[in-house]
Amino acid sequence: MPKFSVVVPIYNVEAYIKDCVESLQNQTLKEIEIILVDDGSPDNSGSIIDDYASKDERIKVIHKANGGVSAARNDGLKVATGEYVLFCDSDDMMEIDACEKLYKAGIDSDADVVIGDVYRIIDGEKKYAQFFAKPFCTDDRNILDDLVRVDFSRKYCHDAPADGPAFGYGGPWNKAVKKDLLDRTGISFDTSLKGIFDDILYTAYLYAEAKKVVYITEPVYDYRILDGSVTHSYKAAMLEINEAIFAAWDKFLKKYGYDGRFDQAYEALVIRRLKGMLGTYFFNEKNPVGLKEQKKQLKALLKSEPYLSAIKKVDPHRLINQYDLAVWMMAKAGSANGLHLVYKMFVLLKK
């Protein structure tokens, strides 16, 4: 049995896949299996990974019809045989000693989940992102529940460094998970969410089911920030996807008895989803609907649930950053024009 299984969902990444695969092949921990899932890539990604597999017996390749990142991760998980499982995005890389450090921390503490830090790579520049102020190892249910809250909003992270990242707390790519935990609970990625927030929901289920979680202040992952990623692309069905997200979260909250206790965290999540829709739907340049109609639809959305209640009740101190805060203020005023202006300013500041 390999000590580690690393699952990589792959779609249209021929420019980056070599860096990703070689970062896994070169791990200092050699007893790993590398599961590459070609999600119907139209480019040469499939043939590239076949070539790697022909030269390295640790590599398993799955070719499948395009079904999205969630389905690809699930298909890889089904064939994973390692003691611990980790997911790596195909345009990112693992630090050379990532598997070794995560595995040692997990085995030494008998932890169900091991969390590591990451490097953010922006325009070729590597920046260290530390998630918590200090290492921890806990089996305290209250602390594990707090980690679920952090999934909703970083502002629930009481010991996050002041300059810590506003992203990644729910990402699956810096978290090693006992395969036994996944097998016993059936935790997987929700394909109905179309690759949006499915990773955060997956992580929330991990924390809800885990008996012990360990965090190490060691960078294990290189997260490449690309303009063309799924986070920034146009989603014509974004309204329906958000409805599925809220339904999935409601189901999760009720299953573990979190409903009522997590209201403020849930409201912060709703504001995040509203913010996300400004770029992926309403004001995206690929949206075929004119600006006047976009604003009309947005104003109607602000008056619907769960947005209406979240806008009224959310604690602004729990919002992640100034962009979230500005979105909430304009939404509270019911101003689609204001939200459009906030979005344009955000785009300009990113350039």
Automatic annotation (TrEMBL):
Chain ranges of the Glycosyltransferase 2-like domain: 5-136
Keyword flag Transferase: yes
Domain of life, source organism: Bacteria
SUPFAM superfamilies for the chain: Nucleotide-diphospho-sugar transferases
CDD domains in UniProt: Glyco_tranf_GTA_type
EC number(s) reported in the record: 2.4.-.-
Keywords: Glycosyltransferase, Transferase
GO molecular-function terms, A-Z: glycosyltransferase activity
PANTHER family for the chain: GLYCOSYLTRANSFERASE (PTHR22916), GLYCOSYLTRANSFERASE EPSH-RELATED (PTHR22916:SF51)
Protein name (Swiss-Prot/TrEMBL): Putative glycosyltransferase EpsJ
Organism expressing this protein natively: Eisenbergiella tayi
